Amino acid sequence: MRVTDTDTLLRAYDEQMRGFRGRPGLIIEQDGPVLRVAGQHRGFVTTPRDLGVDGPELDALIARQRDYFALRGEAVEWKTRGHDLPASLTDRLRAAGFVPEDQETVVIGVTSDMAADPVVPNGTTLREVTADADLRAIAAMESTIWGEDLSFMGEELIVSRAAAPDEIAFFSVTDDATGQVVSAAWIIYHPDTDFAYLAGGSTLEAWRKRGIYHALVAVRAQQAVARGTRYLMVDASDDSAPILGRLGFTAVTTTTPYVWTPPGRLALLRTGALLYLAPAAGPVVCDDLPEHRGECRRVDRFPLPDGHGAGGLVVVSGGDDALGIGNDGAVIKEDVDMVFRGQQGADVALEHEIGPVRALDGFGNLRVCRVDQVTNLAADRLLPVRQARDVLVHPRICAVCHGASARVAWLAAAEEH
């Protein structure tokens, strides 16, 4: 029998689906009532229905999350729901600099009601896919739909499946004549809950309104029934919410992401980790010398555009060098006039010339985290006058976009039809 009691469904959602499905490499921390996640395409914050704080205490809680991700140089999404308490939450998020994105509708369906034999158009094939090449083909389809290069999305799908192969399943519909993927969707299982989450669902325009979306819901529901999953949940876009309603899903609440982005940095958009370039605000390296009476001032407020010394070493983690920076000396120049037996373990002094980060102009999300000036006493006499220093850079870039409009069906994005 179909369950349509909204209160029952919403209660199950609040009790079971306000956490986060983690994977290796993520940083998941609890700060009072808030659960925050770092280390992915952008930070994420989720909460219980009632935060239990309001007024100045709530403002301080919001500011702590914002400042935590600011120190990491990351944007962050605070996931709100339409029935969250206190009612002042969204106003206080706005006041703290968070900006709302598109509202979606949370819909829940009873899995057994949705399961059916999938029917796809003649000349197409629906199948579960696991190979890396198939996941990259899904990303290629998404690139065609949204008019952006989303090849990185395929790598994210591959990583997610490798991290938890029993908790995510991908399905694609291909054109038999060409082998092209025309639609794809996936299901994310949440262990120790009654829920699975439906994501993806995008379809090439020429293949829409032909029952493919319905078929992808049915096949995922079939698998979920076999696994004993009671409910299916979707954060549904305005396009897909009416379709899901006709299939028997019940709207229980709304959800709106509130996003804070570090000023002057690359903006990570919720719709796909696309980055927009902003003008460089100045040199990357900061001055921490106590004798200069200014913690973390910029070095050389008017640095010479050409600099003087050899390029320093830029260290980039393997597999994380999306821009092909490597150790290109043009990326960072750091010139320090070494004083005989001086500058032992000091940070860059204000009076030293620091070449601007010309090759990374605007890449504010590539942050220098350390400038090493420790000099070995035994080798002090051997140092040349303008010895370059090592500079460590942590890039956090998935992809770069130069357009003003972009949209991506991300790994756990809302269903599209």
Outline the structure in words.
There is one protein chain. With 417 residues, the chain is α+β, with helices and mostly antiparallel strands. The protein folds into 3 domains: 6-104, no CATH class; 108-249, Gcn5-related N-acetyltransferase (GNAT) (Aminopeptidase, 3-Layer(aba) Sandwich); 276-397, no CATH class. Helix content is 22%, strand content 22%. The chain has 8 helices and 17 strands. It has helices at 6-16, 55-72, 89-95, 111-114, 132-146, 151-163, 212-226, 240-246; strands at residues 27-31, 34-38, 43-46, 76-81, 99-100, 104-110, 124-129, 168-175, 181-189, 195-203, 231-236, 250-260, 286-287, 297-298, 314-315, 367-371, 391-394. Strands 1, 2, 3, 4, 5, 6, 7, 8, 9, 10, 11 and 12 form a 12-stranded mixed beta sheet that branches. Strands 15-17-16 form a 3-stranded mixed beta sheet, with no helix packed on it. Strands 13-14 form a two-stranded antiparallel ribbon. Strand 9 (181-189) and strand 10 form a beta hairpin. The radius of gyration is 25 Å and the shape is globular. The model is unreliable at 266-413 (pLDDT under 50).
